[in-house]
Amino acid sequence: MSCNPHFRLPLNGDIPIIMIGPGTGLAPFRAFLQERVLNKAKGRNVLYFGCRNKNKDFLYRNELESWVSEGVVLLRTAFSRDQKKKIYVQHLIKEDAHLLWELIDKENAHIYVCGDAKNMAVDVHQTLRSIIVNEGGINMEIADQYINKLEKAERYQKDVWVT
Question: What pTM value is reported for the model?
């Protein structure tokens, strides 16, 4: 187990945040949302959460759905085993490419990824990279530089682990 002391909310509550946390990766984002509600932060909150089955694994469902109805968070859920074709968070991220590009490039959103390092984090990273290329109209090399700048500015942070 290791600690990531930089996995924190931006000091300015007006800055949007994009949180990607399937399964138990949801834990820090629940705390992030609680803090933003408490501090009356005005920045947009977008959460991508996934699990196998909506009726078995949807952690903190009531609380999250309450925040959705209150306008606190845009919640995008991927329940991978509830239909024939598996749907994961990276599929929803791809669907939301334009919104995410606007938040990242125009509104300086911070991106947080928490959970599985082996598959999910890699797939999410590749999806974000393709969004930057396609929505930003730039090549892969420039996209990689863009991502590096986000990481150095602590606007793209990961707290991931291998199981």
Answer: 0.94
